[in-house]
Amino acid sequence: MNKPTIAALAAFAVLLLAFFATREKEVSVGVQKFDPTPLSSSAIDAVTITGANAAKLERGANGWTVADPSKPDAKFAADEGQVTQTLTALAELKAPDFVNDQADRHAEYEVTTEKGTSVVATGGGKTFSVILGKASKSGGVYVRRPDANAVFSSPSSLGSLVKKNVTAWRKKAIATVPVADVSQVDVLRADGSGWSVKSAEGVWSLASPAPAGFRFDPAAAQRLVGSLTALTAKDFLSAEGDFSKAHVFTLTKKDGSPVKVTLSATKRDDGSFALKVDGDPQQYLVDSWLAEQLDKPLEGLRDLTLLAFDPSKVTKVTLTAAGKKTIVTKEGEAWKLVEPKAAPAGVEFDGAQVPVQLGRLKTLRAAKLVEKGALGAPSTTIELVHDGKPVKLVFGADTGSNSEVFVKGNADELVYAIAGAEKQAWSDGPKLFNKPPPPPDFGQMQGLEQLPPEIRRQLLEQLRNQQRN
Residues near 232 by Cβ (< 8 Å), separated by ≥ 6? Predict the structure, then answer.
């Protein structure tokens, strides 16, 4: 059973269990009703949250701000997406399941002012208040109006949306330059090295000298520029960061004005890195994964693809591994298995898989350039007849580190290193062209017939989407 099928079946099991999960034992529908908010999301001007995490959200002329209720003057720009989700959840809050109205059990459901999270929304002269408790057994949250004893179970996500501190509410996007407005990026690294890239109608090219044989990867430059124009903070610094050793990125806008981004090269104890943008008084902390995306020497812009060819012009593929050959040829528009003459047991040759594998070869990338070292004795080779001419990829000897092997293609004359697993994957011979198993028939799975038609339709659609992905 392949991985997509296993994932789809697992998702089906989870969804089925969720549907048949035991609801609140004490629920009695219709005994009492929860009064919904009289405010629409657009009418709410402020939301005050108190409890383990406290925050005050306010709508202003420049958007929403967030502050600690105990320090209302220290306002910060709030994440508009989070605020919008919260306002929508507030306006649509429903609690159809009455649990009980015993005041001495409020602590059990954590809907007291001491244990719960109080939310007060105001706007247009109206106020709506609710206390959110712990997660309910049916997957939502327990809720209670402060002026009533009745406790209800709500399927709303409001509880998870509001239970966070001021920092979590703050806008994490770091303003630099819109990606479409960047014409050049100059990089000065902490070690003194540097390089530049420039854009002409959205196509990036190297604007600084490069070593002989260097193949520039425009997509790598595009990714870097994308990261620099979509920076996200992990946290916010309240004091000056350590920029004694730093990488400096100067983004030049189309109008010629520069925007400088400085990334500390010193990792903090929590694994984050300090970052600042000229003109922005706030300094930030960013995650290590983002710092790694930005920390690019010139070598990080090297094109590591190994083969240069057009899959549509290939007429023959020869795989040689462990002394055995697998040969497929194109006859008209169909691919045929030539060697071995018959597919081995357990393999059903499918010519449609040849273009799939050629697509994989087209995008196959090495892990890195090998500056010193020879290819060694060939261990697995792939030979293509492309437009009547040979194209060859050769996997060589082990490099002796990181389970990698030497590899060389036709993209250039250099030798690279690649994961040994890649060599193994191309050593499977006819199995590479095996017909894939049919997708499972989710409609025949037992238990679905017991579900309401709409629920069944949604489950089937979700499972099929997972199978396709």
Answer: 172, 173, 174, 286, 290
Contact 377, 396 (CB under 8 A): yes
Segments making up each domain of the chain, as ranges = 31-169, 173-301, 311-433
In angstroms, rounded to a whole number, what is the distance separating the alpha carbons of residues 390 and 316?
Answer: 10
Please state, in angstroms and rounded to a whole number, the distance separating the CA atoms of residues 259 and 362. 37
Measured between alpha carbons, how far is 431 from 424 in angstroms, rounded to an integer? 12
| Tens digits of residue pLDDT in 416-434 | 999 999 999 999 999 999 9
On the 0-12 / 13-18 / 19+ scale of CB atoms within 10 A, 251 is buried
446's tokens:
């037992």
**Residue partners of 42: CB distance under 8 A and separation at least 6:** none
Is 31-169's fold the same as 173-301's? yes
pTM: 0.74
Beta partners for residue 63, in sequence order? 60
Topology adopted by domain 173-301? Immunoglobulin-like (2.60.40)
Three-state helix/strand/coil letters over 67-90 = EECCEEEEEEEECHHHHHHHHHHH
Provide the 10 A C-beta neighbour count for residue 326: 23
DSSP 3-state of 300: helix
The burial of 421, by beta-carbon neighbours within 10 Å (0-12 exposed, 13-18 middle, 19 or more buried), is given as exposed
Rounded Cα gap, residues 291 and 374, in angstroms: 33
pLDDT digits (tens, 9 = 90+) for 256-268: 999 999 999 999 9
Distance between CA atoms of 143 and 152, rounded to whole angstroms? 5
Q: How many CB atoms lie within 10 A of CB 284?
A: 22
**Axis-axis angle for helices 453-468, 3-20 (nearest 10):** 160
d(CA 395, CA 460): 44
Which amino acid is present at 348?
E
Residues 436 and 448: their CA atoms lie apart, in Å, by 26
Q: Which residues is 398 bridged to in the sheet?
A: 405
What is the dotted CATH code of the domain comprising 31-169?
2.60.40
